[in-house]
Amino acid sequence: MTPLLEVNGISKRFGGILALTDVSFNVIEGEILGLIGPNGAGKTTMFNCIAGVYKPTSGDLVFTLGGKSQRINGRKPEKMTELGIARTFQNIRLFSALTVLDNVRIARHCRTTSNFFRSVLRTRFQRAEEKEIVDASMRWLDFVGLGHHALANASSLSYGDQRRLEIARALATEPKLLLLDEPAAGMNPKETRMLVDLIHAILDAGVTVMLIEHDMKLVMTICKRLVVLDHGTLIAEGGPKEVRENPQVIEAYLGRGAAHA
Amino acid sequence: MNIGKSLILLVVAAVLTYPLVPQSSDYIIHVMTLAMVYMILAMGLNIVPGFCGLLDLGYVGFYGIGAYTAGLLTIHYGLSFWVIVPLAALNGALWGALLGAPTLRLTGDYFAIVTFGFSELVVLFLTNEIWLTRGPLGLPGIQPITLNLTWLNDAWYFEFYDKTPNFYVVALLVGLVFFIMRRMEDSRLGRAWYAIREDPLAAASCGVNILNYKVIAFAISAAIGAVGGAFYARWSMFLSPDMFKFWESFLVLCMVVLGGLGNIKGALLGAVILVSLGEVLREVLSSLGLPPESRFMAYGLIMVLIMRFKPAGFFPAIASSGRSNPLLIDLQKRLAARNVPKEETRDAAT
């Protein structure tokens, strides 16, 4: 079976620094893939390459949808979203002056079409679309359990709720692949448990999940497969158990990194 | 809330009927008309720094383009005002898109400098292209606004030399622009703009093509500015390049900031405050024996005070018109009907 996303020898160079060196792995449809590694390993850079924020210096990203494969590296973030790749951010990036509902409504942008003239004239089509936007947004807000906060201000939510709102916003773009950048960061144990349930629910909704996470307990319990990066290179790939026992991974986390610092 | 609303309606009704009162003063009507011209400009400018978060220091350029478009079309082709308004808007939008498409990749200060340069360019063009604009001599003899209803009744041909009809024409334009702004704010377009203002990267990740939406914002903003200019040309019946100096851009920007960036009502209030303040200062400063230019210092002082005490302006709320959309009122009712247990919300907050 062809993987949903094929990462093929991706390198990313920032001036003299190689943030990613020839990284290759596959994301298989319907799995939760964990991307781990020490700080500065290039995990977020990898996400940014997949999400279209950075253009990889070399290598290929191949996205397969409905049996049709296409090379997608270098596409703009909005094109990636349209294609079906959504993401959340390591530092929460909500539209904080807007309401919770508006945050999710904006994410429906790429699945709707009303333009200036339709908006001003408020045509029947536009009104139907607006209704569809509100309904879909509420569906996703209820999905992450924030439905009753819909009309509150996004900045008034608690930290954990803000993270869930980001997930709802990403889901509202109807992705095939969801990139979660440290979703559990700053969450208390109860919120983390809710997050685990949420990620499983996302998977059941037919969305493949790829996540960066530092909470090893979380990663080891929900990911069937892990990819480990260190200094921009892929050092291990496999199930949680193999990865945990891999000497290179142990060295990356405990040995060499500490000595260099 | 409801009392406030009816109070506003009352004030609007009082202002709109004022010119019909026999004792009304021409001066007051003139000032109110001027305030409404600035309302149009402030609402139009609001789209760029208010909705999209881009500093625009060259708005008067589009005002000037609209004014000269209207003036020249009137003098050379004798077109009706009602035809000229959409033409001026289109011409403004065209220049907005032409300026915006290459420069909107710039961010922050760099973009502000380009817009500033553009408005200076417009003034230089108006001053130096004498074959078209008569340069510093100005463009006199523009016909006033006419209303030709002879197709209804042979006697119904009106020329608006008087203050009162002009007042109602601009009031109509303000109403129209206000309506369009509200509709845009509560739509896919307005939400995309607010998203860009709040966080461009997150907006792009939501599928908003940032550059396109910035260009659209710039074009619509320019079109509204040009509409204001078109009215101004037919109202003042004389144009000269020095009416469109940088100072005007700054004044309109002050109105938007004073009212609250991104708030439509704020732009209206800002225009009223600064225009009436200008009139008051004219009286006060001359009675103190100060030159009229010292009013700039007063404006500066006011901006400093606003920044110190009300940095978000009088109406800081954005995207507020969506709240009155029937869809959201309906949603609000549904949410209330769900009757969420209070414990759960408190839990999430801790």
Characteristics:
heterodimer, A: 261 residues, alpha/beta, 2 domains, six-stranded mixed beta sheet, 10 strands, globular, disordered C terminus, B: 350 residues, mainly alpha, two-stranded antiparallel sheet, 15 helices
Structure, described:
The complex is a heterodimer of chains A (261) and B (350). The C terminus of chain A is likely disordered. The radius of gyration of chain A is 19 Å and the shape is globular. Chain A is α/β, with parallel strands linked by helices and 261 residues long. In chain A, 40% of the residues lie in helices and 24% in strands. Chain A folds into 2 domains: 170 residues, Rossmann fold, CATH 3.40.50; 79 residues, no CATH class. Chain B is an all-alpha fold and 350 residues long. Chain B has a two-stranded antiparallel ribbon. At the A-B interface, helix 2, helix 3, helix 4, helix 5 and helix 6 of A face helix 7, helix 8, helix 9, helix 10 and helix 14 of B.
Instruction: List the chains of the largest interface with their residue counts.
Output: A-B, 53 and 41 residues
For the record, give the distance between the C-alpha atoms at the N and C termini of chain B, rounded to a whole number.
31 Å
**Which architecture of chain B per CATH?**
Orthogonal Bundle
* CATH homologous superfamily placement of the largest domain in chain A: P-loop containing nucleotide triphosphate hydrolases
The CATH topology of the largest domain in chain A is: Rossmann fold
Largest sheet of chain B: 2 strands, antiparallel
Strand order of the largest sheet of chain A: 6-7-8-3-9-10
Which overall shape of chain A is indicated by the principal axes computed on the Cα atoms?
globular
Topology:
The complex is a heterodimer of chains A (261) and B (350).
Chain A: E1 5-14, E2 17-27, E3 32-36, H1 43-51, E4 58-65, E5 68-71, H2 77-83, E6 85-87, H3 100-107, H4 116-121, H5 124-144, H6 159-171, E7 177-181, H7 189-204, E8 208-212, H8 216-222, E9 225-230, E10 233-238, H9 240-245, H10 247-253, H11 256-260
Parallel strand pairs in A: 3-8, 3-9, 6-7, 7-8
Antiparallel strand pairs in A: 1-2, 1-4, 4-5, 9-10
Chain B: H1 2-17, H2 26-51, H3 59-77, H4 81-103, H5 108-128, H6 130-133, E1 146-148, E2 157-159, H7 163-185, H8 188-198, H9 200-205, H10 210-236, H11 246-259, H12 264-287, H13 295-309, H14 326-338, H15 342-349
Antiparallel strand pairs in B: 1-2
